[in-house]
Amino acid sequence: MSDEEPRYPGQEPPHQPNWGSAYPPPGQSTPPPGYGYPPPGYPPPGYPPQGYGYGPVVPKHPNASTAMVLGIVGVAGGFLCWLPLLVSPVALFQGRKAMREIDASNGQLNGRSEAKAGFVLGIIGTVLLALALAFVVLIVVLSLTIQDFWGETTDDDPGTFDTSARTSLVATWPSGA
């Protein structure tokens, strides 16, 4: 059994595609227009011309990443304990300084996004630091001004347990029984 279709008299043989062949089909010396590779030095249709790699690498501002890291440490560490919040104002000032210097460099320095992230996280951490300090000051002021702020009782309070009665009871208990 053959895979070819039967041919009738006067019918030309079916055109076989020339997939993957390095040679053109018989009777055709050059590929039709729009096919094949473009001449050397020109890109394929629909693609931009190739350059010699990427443009020059612009250096990153040295304080941009530092401001971002300090901002992350200040805010993330501030939720665990309040001590890392102390680095948040440093992140705020370094981020603001780095953004100003990047803007003034006219494209000679990169890293504005890192500096801005450090600046914003520095603002958030500084606000949290101010709230934490206000809370501590409020607790100190309340504990100094309100006599029973911590739930401590004084000797005048009738609800306290009198230990003197217990000691006198133990001292008078008969020892021989």
TrEMBL record:
Biased composition range(s): Pro residues: 23-42
Q: Provide the transmembrane region boundaries.
A: 67-93, 119-146
Cite the Pfam families for this sequence.
Answer: DUF4190 (PF13828)
Give the span(s) annotated as Disordered.
1-42
Q: What highest taxon heads this organism's lineage?
A: Bacteria
Q: Which keywords, in A-to-Z order, does the entry hold?
A: Membrane, Transmembrane, Transmembrane helix
What is this protein's name?
Uncharacterized protein
Query: Which organism was this protein described from?
Result: Aeromicrobium chenweiae
Q: What is the lineage of its organism?
A: Bacteria, Bacillati, Actinomycetota, Actinomycetes, Propionibacteriales
